């Protein structure tokens, strides 16, 4: 009796999904065959695969992706041989049941399965699994006792030895260090009218009737005078709970105020450089609009990495790589830069949150760690105006800058790890 479900997938591109699907089906009691588990060193690969498909399998499930469709065009690849063998099995109705895990156009499916209905796992893996299991039950695919060690199978499939190499590697963080300004100023300005923050050349925050800044009173516009100005060494007040400025004002929690000023400083700088701002609950996200002027690839030759894009097109929408930041003082002054993806329509309008979330899952699921890192490096390098010293100089006073390193802190590891190779798709199309 034929009992096996044969999973045909590309290696290593789609290993993660294939192992996930196999472990779920095993947990339900299905007899699953995938290459990661069944073949060992010394096996005669193809005869065993052919025998499993023709003699032992009740169901053949090709895991369709862009990498699968690319490889199946080559008659020497395993996936071509597998699906061609399955296509010759005529004594089982509905033997082939494709599942699709990305935005591959059905017209690009392998010729052996053109016209077959595929189950969509792209939007939601769990919903795709539910649909697949219903089909398996309806077609009465044999089911036995649940696999008792499906979790062990999952863990064994990702043994560290299979992804680690002995080549030293830089492990980058998302911490970008900066020089902490030497002095903090507390001003009491005389304002003749209500002024917008953008009326001022340098950043400050407002506490009551005081301005807190890194610039002295001389750097105010000539139309503004100050009743009083006090300066403090930043290092002296960081650990204080409160600092008495004068008889009428106490600077409570100086460290928190300094962090607030630092956050405002970098946010104002990004906005003034022309980046767009997307408000979210924790902190605003800044991004370059996906226009022709920002679609040119950014060189990462200084990092021995490929050129990278920080904007592009995804289906009929546009994506932009975005960043949000938060200043921290200890163990050293640095900005923690988090990565985001923002989607807009062809009028450069930011999409509604629900649609953003859906598109983010689709596009982001194809980005590996190195993709996120390279986009972050490219983004910071672009913000620095491709400064050869990899520094972002933010004016904070007439003669002072907040200098941020555009290269994140990193550690050197004695070992590196391997990530799946992938082909660039239309999801990241750019105009050079």
Automatic annotation (TrEMBL):
The lineage of its organism: Bacteria, Pseudomonadati, Bacteroidota, Chitinophagia, Chitinophagales. InterPro entries: TIR_dom, Toll_tir_struct_dom_sf. GO terms for biological process: signal transduction. Residues 1-140 form the TIR domain. This is TIR domain-containing protein. Pfam families: TIR_2.
